[in-house]
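Complex record, four chains
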Amino acid sequence: MKGLERIGISLETDLLAEFDALIARKGYTNRSEAIRDLIRQDLSAARLDDPNAQAVATVLLVYDHHVTKLADKLLGLQHSHLLETISSLHVHLDHHHCLEVIVLRGSVGQIHRVGDQMVSLKGVRLGRVNLITVKD
Amino acid sequence: MKGLERIGISLETDLLAEFDALIARKGYTNRSEAIRDLIRQDLSAARLDDPNAQAVATVLLVYDHHVTKLADKLLGLQHSHLLETISSLHVHLDHHHCLEVIVLRGSVGQIHRVGDQMVSLKGVRLGRVNLITVKD
Amino acid sequence: MKGLERIGISLETDLLAEFDALIARKGYTNRSEAIRDLIRQDLSAARLDDPNAQAVATVLLVYDHHVTKLADKLLGLQHSHLLETISSLHVHLDHHHCLEVIVLRGSVGQIHRVGDQMVSLKGVRLGRVNLITVKD
Amino acid sequence: MKGLERIGISLETDLLAEFDALIARKGYTNRSEAIRDLIRQDLSAARLDDPNAQAVATVLLVYDHHVTKLADKLLGLQHSHLLETISSLHVHLDHHHCLEVIVLRGSVGQIHRVGDQMVSLKGVRLGRVNLITVKD
């Protein structure tokens, strides 16, 4: 898709052997690919420090669907005009609990703000916000 | 849903004031609810140390859908018989990139294993596995 | 030391039982103390989002002391005038490797900057920066 | 110190440019070194999943030294025979608070156990346990 560059790095033999074993266990078939993934994760983490960076996030919520108005409030937050809610997915875990995964797109700062509000809603029992930055 | 108990805790006045300010900013309307959430998160994190604990997880993947056979391999992993794939959600990010959120249920150890394999597939550019433990 | 306030919270019986078991395993003799600790950690984590908040940090470095000038460079960074280096502790791990723990005080932003520079010095094999915010 | 191997990896040009900018900001003068550090961190994190792996840890504690017997209890835990306490460092933060950094060596599982007990002592206001695995 883009131009490729080839770079060389030198590594201690035993470090390389341990790395090869780790990535084989994880399922990599290719060392280059594993190193590229480390670099991408490092860059993605660094970008998250900037509240204005663009990101995609999943908000993972476990909630009690018997709590009245919770679903409405969640929908309201998803339609707040600051953020673009791309999609959401709903799973029935048991008689009381639902799992909802909401995919948001927006700035890192806005996602944290809206994510915190979702997690703090009455009836939400566990919540987790996870961001991945995307290059524009 | 279950029996409720009322407990009392004593806190330094200034600690309480700072906590009240933080939870108001996060959107809590109720201090009890905020403390319950801290307790639930603490318990959920502790349970994740046990590879046999039951969990629900989202695997968040950004991948290049032009890479051949990637979608097939991802589907194959979702249908591996060790884990129950509950659902998945697919979003087109741009001409090259897709976001896929896969919801898995299983033991903590199995989820980590399958999650690592998904993240390490050729063509997956960024991946993140997030677990929430659930009481059976 | 400061005024104390007593607050009541209500909790599901089974949640409370699981929490009591967890904190007993961790060594707490007192439920109030365990909840106060959760609140303090939550506040400390929230304060770390502000690059201007005051913090104390440990920089944990494993390095090869045969690499020339590394010790000098580390000392130089510790005496950079932006930060107050409170103290440091040096441990010989084996023939090649030293562990150095450097305690810094300053703003969250400055600590991250100097910590990154320490971790990236040639000869440093592993590094980790950990911050705890302190109320002034 | 050990044998060195040279490997080649191919990377998208724009990914490489962004990585070069990030590592320059962190203070790296050498791309090979930055990639080796990513690999070492990845290996160290993977080793921490094994409770029997050998590790070095810092326990960072902020505590109120007016709480009676706390110092004695901390010393007692440091001399528990399961772990080797290498060293500790004590800093006076203000009239009430001390910072103590305790360096422990032992298995990952033992360090977590003893670290939890230190953090849960009455009078300890904030605590953080950080591990780095070491190759034997």
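Note: The first helix of chain A runs from residue 13 to 26.
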